Amino acid sequence: MFNSYDYFAEICAKNKLTVAGNYKFCRVTGLGNLEEVIQNFKREQAYFCIDDTNDGTTFQGAGGGYFERRMYIVYIMKKYPLNDMQAQHAALEECRRIYRSVCSKLVFDRSRLLNSQIYLNTDRIPYYEMEGYAISGVTGLYTMISIDEPVNLCYNANDWTE
């Protein structure tokens, strides 16, 4: 089974841009919460976050087998001085470069993960830039990545009373 925390923590730890920018890897449960960002807000200047608490779906693939599709959201955020639009632009541009670098890693890893029956959907990797002040003095973007894994839906009579 795909472990999103380990996978994205490794991306954050090995990406030269996130390392040089001192991006803190965090786990969150949505843009409205950002728990580990808030916990580290006074100490850290940049964040690389993963949210794996999103809806998914079970579907039948073209070959007849069933798969579970899960969505993962990656947030890339950086602080900047308030009311300094040049700094805000520079911070957002850094987040965009990291996003593109992460996309290249996802495309690169697609065939490696396929060997483990993990299907990384890289045909379309949307991103959304944070408008205004999501958190005061923080800019960035988030991207949604879907991953399909085979799921066993064989009926098991032992799971039922009748």
Structural features, described:
The chain is an alpha+beta fold. It is elongated and about 65 Å long. The longest helix is centred in the middle third of the chain and has 30 residues. The model has no long low-confidence stretch (mean pLDDT 92). Strands 1, 2, 3, 4, 5, 6 and 7 form a seven-stranded mixed beta sheet that branches. Helix content is 31%, strand content 30%.
Short description:
The protein is an alpha+beta fold.
Instruction: Please write the string of helix (H) and strand (E) elements.
Output: HHEHEEEHEEE
Global structural class: alpha+beta
Using the CA coordinates, give the radius of gyration.
Answer: 18 Å
* Cα shape: elongated
Query: Which strand-content bin applies to the residues?
Result: 25-35%
What is the end-to-end distance?
31 Å
Total of DSSP H or I helical runs spanning 4+ residues: 4
Q: How is the main sheet built?
A: 7 strands, mixed
Detail the poorly predicted runs.
none
Residues in helices, as a percent range: 25-40%
Question: Could you give the topology of this structure?
Answer:
Layout: H1 4-14, H2 16-20, E1 23-27, H3 35-39, E2 46-51, E3 56-60, E4 66-79, H4 85-114, E5 119-121, E6 127-129, E7 138-150
Parallel strand pairs: 1-2
Antiparallel strand pairs: 2-4, 3-4, 4-7, 5-7, 6-7
Task: Label this structure with key terms.
single chain; 162 residues; alpha+beta; 7-stranded mixed β-sheet; 4 helices; 31% helix
